[in-house]
Amino acid sequence: MKKEVLQLAAFEAVDLTEKLFNETEKHMAEELTDVSFKSSEFAWLQYTYADQYAKYISFAAISSNLAAKTIIEKSHKKAKHGVSFVPVEGTKMKEICPIDHIEECIIGKYRSYTGHCNNIKKPRSGAAYEKLRRFLPADYGDGISSVRLSVSGNELASPRALSSLFTPSPSGHAVCSLLLAPFLSFIYDDMVHVPSNRIFKRE
C-alpha cells in the first residue's frame, strides 16, 4: 500500500472530524433548541451526556474509523483484513492518537479512584477511559464498524425477531423481583454506556 494513500486518508479523516466537532456540532447547538426534540430524545441525550475527556479521546477513534474506510475504498478488497495493522508513522493520525504512558505506579495505601495502577503488572486493566479487552476478535461486516454479516455475506436476521419466533412470551417470573430493572441499569452504565454527541445547549 502506497504511503501517499495512507497520508491522504489520514489527512481527510482528521479534517472531516474537525468539521464535525468544530463546525457541525456548533451549528446544531446554535440552531436547535430544547423544543426541537421529543421528550424521549431529550431524555436520552441527557442520559448519555459525555464528559470532555471522553469527547477528546473519541476524536482519534472517529478519525481512525474514517481513515480506515477511505483506505479500503482505495485499496484491494482483501485490505480490510489488515487495515488494523497499517502503520501511522508519518501521517496526521500519529499526531492525534492520545498517548498517556504510565512510567511508574506510586505505592499508596488506597486504590486510585480511576482504577489506574490498582494492578501493578497491568496498570491499565479495568481503569477508566481504557479500552475493554475482547474475548473474541472483532467481526464487522466491512472489517471496520458495520454490523456483522452472515457467512454468505447477507444481513443477519434480527435477534428480536428470532427470539419472538422460537421463544414463547413468559407469563411471569418466579425468581426475578422489581430490583432486576435498576440492577440491569447499573450494569449497563458500568459496562456498555455509550456517550452520544452533544447537539443541544446545556447550561
TrEMBL record:
The keyword Ribosomal protein does not apply. Keywords: Glycoprotein, Oxidoreductase, Peroxidase, Secreted. InterPro entries: Haem_peroxidase_animal (IPR019791), Haem_peroxidase_sf (IPR010255), Haem_peroxidase_sf_animal (IPR037120). One of its GO terms (biological process) is response to oxidative stress. The keyword Oxidoreductase applies. One of its GO terms (molecular function) is peroxidase activity. PROSITE patterns: PEROXIDASE_3. It is found in: Secreted. Pfam families: An_peroxidase. One of its GO terms (cellular component) is extracellular region. Its main location: secreted. This is Uncharacterized protein. It comes from Caenorhabditis bovis.
